[in-house]
Amino acid sequence: MNNIYKLIQKHPALSIVIGFQCFRFILLPFMGLMPQDAYYHFYGENFSWCYLDHPGMIGYLLRIFTLVFGKTVFVIKLTDFVITSLTLLSFYKLAECFLSKEKLKYAIILIASTFFISILSFNSTPDVPLLLFWTLSVLFLYRAIFEHKKASWIYAGIAMGLAFDSKYTGLLLQIGLLAFILFSKHHRKLLISPWLWISLIVSAIITFPVWFWNYQNDFASFLFKSSDRTSSISKFKISPKYFFGALGHQSLLLLPILFGTFLIFTFKYIKRFLLKFKLPSSKILFLLAFFIPTFLGFLSLTPVYWVKLNWMMPSYITGIILTSIFITRKWVRYQVIFSVVIHVLVSIQLLFYVVPIKSDDTWVGWKELASEIDTLKETFPNTFVFADDGYKTTAALNFFMEEKVYAQNVIGLKALHFDFLGDDLTILNGKNAFFIDSDKRFKNEDKKGHILNEVKPYFEKCTELEPIIITKHGKKVRKFWIYFCEKYKATP
């Protein structure tokens, strides 16, 4: 302990980083299961080379951790925390390549204090492995290009491939690499270097399973991710709500000081290029190549499309390094103070659930719902369970219950990757079922009074039971409508 105390005294920046990470780790046991945690754990339990809505890296990692340490909510959260901690370590090694010792301290404090690191540490999403492999890709590319380490081209190719196997946004790494080489007059000769192309070929080989699965399934995943979004963007309907909503989300994830600095230096470099046709030094250009396409690309869509809060996250890695070049100690101190306040408020919400969340995107109530359903099944034996809300209730109940829980494909609706499990629904013919319907707004304890029209044709009779009410700290916080449906017909 003495040695640790001396180390912290000698390196105060390290104490801040360790402080934030310890705070996050202490909160892990108090975190309930999020629907996303359950859905991506479902990925791991149903192995596939790819999945409809994402590649499978987060699912594979969750599966490995739960096989080794057991299937518990804590282990799910521990997976996210460990992978994100490795991202912080990789970021430190990357930032070390660009910054002086003083500025390096700023960089590691800035990233460790952000709210987006907390989200990645607590919540399973494809962004958790994406950010790790993105950071490693940029680090290895730096070593390959500026330190002339040929083996690093291979490592970079592997990391870029694994980033794509985490989330399709990983493709922006190859785009950033080629953009840097094209714009940097000192490095254009790399276009004829075999090492560049070897690196790109290696990355393509690593991504092969994703392409192969899509080929086998009529490119379902690629079409799913692109069709609706392309249609919405092509309408080009200006929406101030989307734009200001995106600004609000980014200000929360990065905190206002850091996000404001991002906007300032982005404007500065774009203005310099457009008005003076002047490019920055090679190293700054390298950082910008992995920042501008992702950050400015998605930001430019916000007036016409709802850009999700996590889409810009990969740009934060080099964006924070660039910020550290300009920011002063005073503003770093303000960032830390603001961050501490935000994290304390969030911890109060996590521990005491002060403000009920009127959504299924919550960590509260899933385990209790599973327990209530198990009790109901004792009264109504030989029934199956299904829900109709995309994936959330189905995935959460599958995590906590011993038996299989079905999604809305039971009633002929699209059900994300549940459609690709190869389930033979005819084995359910003639069985009774419980249909679960979440009351997201929860204003009273009344029955709903009717059932979805889509459900009726698949059963001979549906009877609404008393709703299940979930309490926390003595307060009623969630409500689920329950229906007992008799004699299922797979073909209505």
UniProtKB/TrEMBL annotation:
GO terms for cellular component: plasma membrane. The keyword RNA-binding does not apply. InterPro entries: LipidA_mod_glycosyltrf_83, RgtA/B/C-like. The chain crosses the membrane at residues 12-34, 46-62, 74-92, 104-122, 129-146, 152-183, 195-213, 242-265, 285-305, 311-329, 336-355. It is a multi-pass membrane protein. The keyword Transferase applies. Keywords: Cell membrane, Glycosyltransferase, Membrane, Transferase, Transmembrane, Transmembrane helix. One of its GO terms (molecular function) is pentosyltransferase activity. Its main location: membrane. Residues 53-213 form the Glycosyltransferase RgtA/B/C/D-like domain. This is Dolichyl-phosphate-mannose-protein mannosyltransferase.
